[in-house]
Amino acid sequence: MLQMSFCLNAKEGSIINMIRSVSREQLQRVRRHLIHLYGGRSEQLIERFCMMLGRYGLEDVAVPSSSIWDEHDTILISYADSLQDDSIGKPLSALHSFANQHLKGAIRTVHLLPFCPWSSDDGFSVIDYRKVDVDSGDWEDIEQIGGDFNLMFDLVLNHCSSESSWFSDYIAGIEPARHYFIEANPELDYSLVVRPRTSPLLTKTRTRTGESHVWTTFSSDQIDLNWQNPEVLFEFIDILMLYISKGMRIVRLDAVAFLWKNISGKSIHEPETHEIVCLLRNILEIIAPQTILLTETNVPHAENVSYFGQGDEAQMVYQFSLPPLLMHGLATGNATFLTKWAYELKPPPDGCTFFNFTASHDGIGVRPIEGLLPKSETDSLIKHVESSGGKISWRTMPDGTEQPYELNITYYSALTIQNNPQLGAQRFLCSQAIMLSLRGIPGIYIHSLTASLNDLQAAKESGINRRINRHKWKLSELEVHLKDPISKLVFDSYIQLLRRRSNHPAFHPDASQKVFNVSPNLFVHNRTSVSKDEVMLCIYNFSNTPENIDAAFVSEQLGNAPSYYEVISARLISRQSFNTSLEPYQSLWLVARS
């Protein structure tokens, strides 16, 4: 044992010399997590981890910066093939061209949704994690985008495709993948297991040794991986290193809540899952300290923020309650529930922040509003989505009944107003201004930026509700779309919001936030810069009629300054001439001016 310890320390010393930012304490933290997860195998595993370091030349990027984010951080969410133009090349090249032409100075990071070869779920059933889908482009295309923007990738670590070589090897009984998956007895009781889908939990398959049933949380094509096997962990450590070497700045842990399975329990948020998130955080701090860890857990708010841990798990978590609460408020003209939630929202731990968004490639989760909206209000929201052309997806409960799981609709379609598109555009822009002003880093789905309507044809032809919000634009068609007066208004206004926002330190992710309950029809909060030099008062009218804000309240919040600068319209307003009446769905970002 002493000899093993000596060899291990020697390896640690060489790693410390190679990557200057690493310390023995960091390696000790990795060791502790491995002990908790894998017990007596931990010493062998830490030695293996040390041997892996340096494989991708990450010593060149393992330099911590003084701050990992600021007010310039904004994230565009897009599939690799959301934009297409054969004259430019593969879709990744088309996306790069569009981003360079329109988004410089507005967007800092591009989130490329899964771009690997896949077999279902529009990319989230990965066949080969180390390759780029040839129909979208190649690694060089991704690295070129990374030359102009930061990059965010998905690590789809709960499951892989039934068409992957891993699963083929499992069926054939080939090491090491023969132990990469979870076999379960279909005769046992799994009623406690939390399900996000209505599909069967177990999928029957035929292997070299006979029939087996494998765990499939999401679909029969998405086979859950066995994280109790450390070989699976090391596959993903290697993939993580590859992605960092290709320029990844933010890693999104997809569906991480379901990672560790407890057959006799819920198999969601298991202690070992949090341990793995901690482990990955510590590994990133060694190999790429500037890389941000983001967890995707579409669950009730208290469960969601548990992935901050004690500031030692994810640096960012999705603000999943925001999209449905915001949609409900603007659809009903009632900001009460959003205000109450935001008022009670605890600030994240130091070094952590929220990932704010209103729309993504998935639907709008219903679970995150459990306990925040009464059932009658949730039912009203569902009816609003259906009346706006949207779809509802369902999940199976332990008693076998089905409950709404997510709302499938573009955010623009949910908030546009058929008989008054100009007013509908203002209502939609109000929603986006709120998302941009709240504490955290904003994520903008490409179909919100482009004011995309429901793709009903794609949803109908595929039978996949989520494709209502996954339209593939030909660039030539998109350019025509953006010449439409309403679409142009939304796009130009959105880009302007992003650029003006980046000029204000009050929108730094660490800037504090205070929410005010002033009226059921108004949503009001402030942001105070880290240096305390700037206070931004944000006021939003949720009503389709003018609403008044108390002039004395505004003056008090802005320190009785003689003038206010309204950021969105770029207007200087004297305190005496400030118009206390907000137009329907108007947004104001106010700072004091002497």
For this structure, the quaternary state is single chain
By CATH, the superfamily of the domain at 73-81 and 101-296 comes out as: Glycosidases
From the 3D structure, determine the CATH topology of the domain at 73-81 and 101-296. TIM Barrel
Query: What's the number of extended β-strand segments?
Result: 25
Q: Please indicate the percent range of residues in DSSP E strands (runs of 2 or more).
A: 15-25%
Description:
This protein starts with a helix and ends with a strand. Among the domains are: 1-54; 73-81 and 101-296, Glycosidases (TIM Barrel); 507-593, Golgi alpha-mannosidase II (Immunoglobulin-like, Sandwich), CATH 2.60.40. Residues 1-8 have low confidence and may be disordered. The strands form seven sheets. The protein has an eight-stranded parallel β-barrel with strand order 1-3-4-9-10-11-12-16, surrounded by four helices. With 594 residues, the chain is α/β, with parallel strands linked by helices. The protein is globular. The protein has 19 helices and 25 strands.
